[in-house]
Amino acid sequence: MLSAQIESNPLLFPCHFQAIFVGFDSKPSMTPDALGSSILSQMTKLTSKPPQCGTCSTNYSIAVTVDSSLGCIQTRNLEDTSSWRCGSMGTTDFSDDEGVDKALADSLGGKVYSVVVVHGDREEVRAVVGKYRHAWVVGRVSEAEAVARAAEIFVKVFVNGGKEEGLIHGEFMPVGADGKIVLSFNLLNSDPQDWVYDWDFQSIDETLLSPVIEALESVANISVESQVLYHTPKSSFSHWDDEQESYIFSTKDLPFFVNSNEWHLDTSIAAGGRSKILQIVVYIPSARECPLLLQLPNGEISKTNGFISPMWGGVIVWNPKDCLKDSESQHPLRRTISQQDLQKVFEVVMGQFRQLFGLKSNNVYVGASGTSSLLASERGFTEWELDVLSRQHTCFNLHSCATTLGSLSRLVQSLPRMIIMDEIGKQVMYSLEAATLARSNASLGLYDSSAVSSRQARYLAEDAFFHPSIMSVSYYSFEHCFAVYSPFFLPVSMHVLLAALREWRRYKQENKKYLAWKTKVKKDS
User: Can you cite a GO biological process for this protein (predicted)?
Assistant: First the structure.
């Protein structure tokens, strides 16, 4: 039933949008209500059809404020709820993106997605999406252009997460069935005879990773572990490039780069469970192939010198500064990666982590109406990006929950002899309750709460399906019964069969004697 509801009625989250027009001092050609209708029309054209689960589709409201020297005019549905202060942007320096972002956060806040369009004297039109739930467009822009810009930012950025479509791809949902992710960081010294590097991972964990883990706590329960490995050569080959004065490996070599035989990465205590392990590998090449650079298909050298594999993790090649082999060195050089270099490495790691969740690693969105700059958050994920992840993971978890419970139902029906334990029934009931709560929270616009409830629903459904009692019965086939009990019954059955044959032969002999005697009696009489 839950699966049918999700398929027939995709979960559409309510979204509230607000457009603010500042500095349009000449008499506007459209009233706020007309501007709102125009933005709504543009958003309808940009919205995917049929509606995608995890988006707002048509389940949204739009309000408009026109802030000019004559005062503020607002749409009727905003007059009592708007937190916008008229004239608050008069002295704002729009060249300072961080300052504008902070000022708008203090002025707006809340769960409403806002776009502030400021009509200025500069010919260049500049659009910036902040770290919270707002964006601003500054420049000599007409009302029609402002409407198109605002609608595109609302739909393509705030709803779809910077993508053309709000589709949910399973390969970008790297959360385990139990709602957990294990980030396994691995520092690989290819050849410790050349040099041995270590890292101060604890400081990185405390300063850089903790805010990220806290930001994603509604989507996944994330834990971190690290290790340093030695004698870990890569599987692919590289070649020397005179122009780059480096060893080069191309994107064609990526499938063979990871050396599964030598890279002992799966040492996590969670490797045997249902948690998802994401491997983050920092590879230090040997002196024989250092510096080692990644060449992109267009011939350019990768700026990050790394790559990702969806649902597995990412690899970064880090080249030591002194990349010349000292052939006379008898002992390897033991060093620690500096905090400055480690900071640069983890900036790349954060970009890869975002890509593993299906988000952009760069800070630019290019749309039909223009280019928008995306401010990066210190936590790795902006608030509007976290909203996108919460909505998408809620849908993914509910769909997975419904699929698992449906499979469990079909399995139980196919095995009439199965005895369902009370514990399994409770898990199914609690899973359905959590799924119902997730849908209820989603309808109220509680993105974080719906993600947490959906994660619980999926976890309980998986627990019920993989209960040991069900697994033992589901694999308890007739062939299994025959293989188990034949050693006991075959010896007995052979004796029974031989005894039956002897009795059959004796019966035939006695019956033959009886018939002969009966024939003799008839002749004598």
Answer: GPI anchor biosynthetic process
Which residues, including other chains, have CB under 8 Å from residue 202's CB and lie 6 or more apart? none
> How far is Cα 289 from Cα 103, in angstroms, rounded to an integer?
50
CB 454 within 8 A of CB 435: yes
* Beta bridge pairs of residue 188: 229, 283
Start-to-end CA distance of the chain, whole Å, equals 85
Q: What mean pLDDT is predicted for residues 147-152?
A: 92
- Please, which pLDDT band fits residue 385 given cuts at 50, 70 and 90? very high
Q: Count how many Cα atoms sit within 13 Å of the Cα of residue 228 in the half-sphere of its side chain.
A: 13
The yes-or-no verdict on residue 376 having pLDDT over 60 is: yes
Is the Cβ–Cβ distance between 280 and 314 less than 8 Å? yes
Do 431 and 406 meet the contact criterion of CB atoms below 8 Å apart?
Answer: no
d(CA 162, CA 153): 9
Render pLDDT for 440-451 as a digit per residue (tens, 0 to 9): 999 898 999 999
* Among the listed residues 256, 346, 251, the one whose alpha carbon sits nearest the alpha carbon of residue 301: 251
Q: Is 77 exposed, middle or buried (0-12, 13-18, 19+ CB in 10 A)?
A: middle
